[in-house]
Amino acid sequence: MKTEQSGKFLSLPLQKTDVEMTVTGPIARSVLTQTFSNPTAQWLEAIYAFPLPENAAVDHMDLLVGERIIQGQIKEKQEAERVYTQAKQQGKKTALVQQHRPNLFTTSVANIPPGGEIRVRLEYQQQLTWRDQQFSVRFPMAITPRYMPADQLPATQRIEIQQQVAGGWSILPGEVPNVISLDNDEEENVAEEVGNTTIAITLNAGFPLSEVSSRYHEITLNDSNDGAMKIDLKEGSIRPDRDFELVWKPEVKYQPKAAFFTEEEHGLLMVMPPELNNPLAETARETLFIIDTSGSMGGASIRQAREALAMAIERLKPHDSFNVIEFNSSSSVLFNMPQQATRMNKQSALAFVSSLQAGGGTEMLPALKRALRMSVNDQTALQQVIFITDGAVGNERQLLEYVQSELGNKRLFTVGIGAAPNSYFMKEAAHFGRGTYSFISSPLEVQEKMQALFNRIESPVLTNLKLTTDADVELLPEKLPDLYSGEPVSIAINNKAKTLSKATLSGRLGNTEWQQELVLDNGANQSGLSVHWGREKIRHWMRAAIRGVPQEQVREEVLKLALKHHLVSQYTSLVAVDVTPSRPMEEQLDKKAIDGVMPSGFSANGQQTVMLASGATSSSLYLMLGLLLMILAMIWQWYERSHSQTGNR
C-alpha cells in the first residue's frame, strides 16, 4: 500500500482472502472473506479492487469487527457512498462494496485502527458452466491492467503521456505503476503485492463423477459422509495471480440431457440439444482473424496467441478464404482483402504471425471496424471473425455497441488469452456477435481449446430456438440465442401462477427441424433461483442499453430489480456501518489503495498510455511542470549567455 502524504510503500493491509464455495445443482454459492490489517501507527482507509465472475450475483455483505457482525444494506449507489463517507468522517468503522463492471468490484474499509484488523465477508452466487459434457466453475483472482483509449477519457479528468516501456509499465515519478481503469472518473493501483488466497469447495454434483480436476492449481479431493466431495488447495493457500477453475465430468451413463429446477415461482431450465453428425467442413468459410498484440499481451499471452492463430490458419481448407489483422496502438492487415487459403498464402500468414510481438496500447475499435467493414470475397461463404485477445480494455460498452450495430451477416468468436482474461467482455462480445467464446489460460491448453473451437464453428448451428409453454410465464432471455455444438440452452423462468407443467423446445439444426417435448411438473428444488432471476433480469436490461434503450429507462428498471433482490449492480451498492465511533476526531485518517497481483506470465512491453486521475496526481503534475520550467530556464540561460557573448565581440 502507499500513503498519500509520503508516497512511500508500507506493508500490506489486505492480509488474506478466504473463499468457501458450495456447489449444489446448477448454482455455486460462495462466501468471500477479506481480512484487512493495519500494521501502521495511523488510522487507515483501505481500498481494494478485485475481480469476481462476470455472472456473480452479489447479495450479502457483513462487516466483522471483533466478535460483532454488522450486516450490510443495499442502497442506491450515491446514497451508499453518502452513508459511507459520513460514517468515515464520524470515525465509525464502515465498509462499502461497489460494482464498476459486472466482473470488477471494489471494497472500501474505513477507520481500521492502528495495529487492528477488520474483516469484510461477501456472499455471491453464480450459475455453473455446462459445456462439452462437463461442468465447471471459475473463480477469478487477478486483474489484467485495462487500457482506456484516449477518446474515451474526458480531457479535464486525465493527463496522458506516451513513454517507452522497458520490461515494465511506464509510470510518472512518484506514481504507482499499472493504472487500471475502473470508471471514467476513478482508478485503482495494480502492483505486485497482495495476501494469499485459500479456496475450499463442497461439491454436490447430483450424479456419479468420472473426473474432478483443477486446470491450473493442485487440489486434494475427499469424500464426506453426506455424499458431497470436499475440495481444497494442496498448498493450503496460493498467490492469487491466475484464475482458479474446477472441472468435473459425469460418468458416461449419467450424462444429463436436460434439467429443471424450481424455487417458488422461479425456475431454471437447461437442455442439451442432440449432436448432428454431418459437419460443415465442406462449406466454404471466410474467416477474419484479429490478434491483439498490445502491451498487456506480453510474455506467455502473446506466445499462446501466436500458437492458437497458427493452428487456426493451418486448418483452413483450399476453398476457404481468410485474412489476418493485428493491433496494438495501431492496426495492420496481412492482405488488402481476404485471400484464398492456398499453401503460399497460408505460409505468408504463418510467417507474419510468427513475427508478431507484444507492445503498445489496446486500440481495439479500429481493428474491429477494419474487420467488420472489410469487403467480402465470397458472398456464399460463412462469414466468421475469430478475435484473439485478453480483453484488457476499459471501453467495453463502446466496443459492444459497435459489434451490435455493425456485425451484419458475420459471426464473432472470442478467444480469451492469459491467466486472467476479461471474461465479461469476451462473453458479451460473443453474445452480441452471435458467436461463442473460449478461454486459453495455459500453453498446455492451446491444442485442446482450439480443437473445441473448431468443432463448434465447423458444426451446424441450432437456430430459430423457441420455447412454448402451457402457462403464462416470463422467460429470459426473451429471444433465445443460437447454440453451437456442445452448448446447452439455459432459460430462467418466472412462473407467477405456478401452473407450468409442459413445454416444447424447437429449433432448426442445419437443414433439420428439431423439437423436444419437456415435462416440467416435477422440478428439483433449488435455492437461489429468485436471486438468479433478478441477476438475469438485470443483465437483460444492461444488454438493452447496449441495443439503444434509453439509459434512464434502464437505470430505473435495474435499480428496482437490484433493490428488490438485494443485489449489487451498476446503480446499487452494499454499505455497512458500526454505529459506535472508534477513531477520535483529532486523529488523522490515511487513505491506502491496496496493490493487486499481476496475472501469472504477464509482461507489458512497448508503448502504453498512462492514465492518471487529475485529483490524484498533483505531485506528478507539479514535477512535470517543474521539469518544464527548468528546461525553459536552461534555454533562457543559454540564450542570455549566447546573446552576451555576441554583444562582447
Brief synopsis:
The chain has 649 residues and is α+β, with helices and mostly antiparallel strands.
Q: What fraction strand?
A: 35-45%
Mean of residue pLDDT values: 86
Q: Percentage of helical residues?
A: 10-25%
- pLDDT < 50 stretches: 1-11, 155-192, 606-627
Q: Which outline best applies?
A: globular
Query: Radius of gyration, rounded?
Result: 27 Å
> Any idea how many domains?
4
Strand order of the largest sheet: 5-4-9-2-1-15-18-17
CATH class category of the largest domain? Mainly Beta
How far is the N terminus from the C terminus? Answer: 60 Å
Number of helices: 10
Using the 3D structure, state the CATH architecture of the largest domain: Sandwich
**CATH-derived topology of the largest domain:** Immunoglobulin-like
How many β-strand stretches?
37
Oligomeric nature of the chains: single chain
- Output the structural class: alpha+beta
- Looking at CATH, the homologous superfamily of the largest domain is tricorn interacting facor f3 domain
Largest sheet: 8 strands, mixed
Question: What this model shows, in words?
Answer:
With 649 residues, this protein is an alpha+beta fold. It has 4 domains: 14-145 and 190-248 and 567-593, Sandwich (Immunoglobulin-like), CATH 2.60.40.1730; 148-187 and 605-641, no CATH class; 263-272 and 461-565, Immunoglobulin-like (Sandwich), CATH 2.60.40; 285-457, 3-Layer(aba) Sandwich (Rossmann fold), CATH 3.40.50.410. The chain has 10 helices and 37 strands. An 8-stranded mixed beta sheet has the order 5-4-9-2-1-15-18-17. Strand 23 and strand 24 form a beta hairpin. Helix 5 packs parallel to helix 6. The N and C termini lie far apart (60 Å).
